[in-house]
Amino acid sequence: MLNVYKADLFVTSGHATQRDWQIGYRYRSGQFRSGGGKLWGVDTAGRRLPIESPNPKVYLPVGNCLMGHIDGPDAMALAFIESAGAYQMIGYTVPTWYGYAGWGMLDYFVEQPGRFTAAEAFYANGQALRHRLATYFPDADRGDKSGARGSRPSVTNRAREAGLTLQDARGLLFDRDCVAFYGDPAWQTRMAPGPLAWEQLLEVENGEYRFQVQPLRGEQSFQPINRNGSQRGGRPIVQLLPQRIDVRSVRIVAGGDLEPLVADDFLLLPLPRQAPIGKTYRLYFRAKLASSDHR
Length: 295
Prior knowledge:
By secondary structure, the chain is of the alpha+beta class. 20% of the residues lie in helices and 27% in strands.
């Protein structure tokens, strides 16, 4: 099917290593295997099925272990690029267990169709992860250095109120540093425009930034679209800025109660807990463009 269907997007999960993707998660099934930049399938009878799918595509192994670990010329990532036309792909470089960095690609790229390129979705999800760490576990980076699973950042009252535990802090730290993006990040690949849960609009004029969010699905606008997978839903609203700004010059005019984060090249709003019918969320701020020294 991968050979003949000419898919634009290929999404996988389940067990994997640097050398194979095990299609059956809890049942006997076939595999994808790799070697020397080539990809092939092996069915349950042991027959080898060559894979040649050269049409350009995005490959998102959002729930696979080790798919992004290039440990030599036989790695799966290289074979997907060579044999399966993966012009862009992500991949865990380690065994995955928490899932925020992988599965979140669906929240931004697939479930907000047309809003982000694959590279922008990867960037937005990474910033969402860092914001979650900073908000609920502000001392996470100051813990011991025995690794994410061995660290013991403080669990704040705010984290407890959100239902988060030490396991979440460790999981976020783990995912932050182990997912790679391969391919040309400037390649403009995005989902075809489709129905959105909310509309977002940024207007910029003479150093004034006016950002509006209009819910489109009533009270369900900010609810998870799909809970299949790990750590799905709840991602903050992210808007990329057209030009870098000097963050020291930012002055919030309206919308400070939305707890916005304004960085040099994006702004972020935590996802509202509810969407009263007819309500529009507005953030207005002033900022100066970054000088060439800050670019």
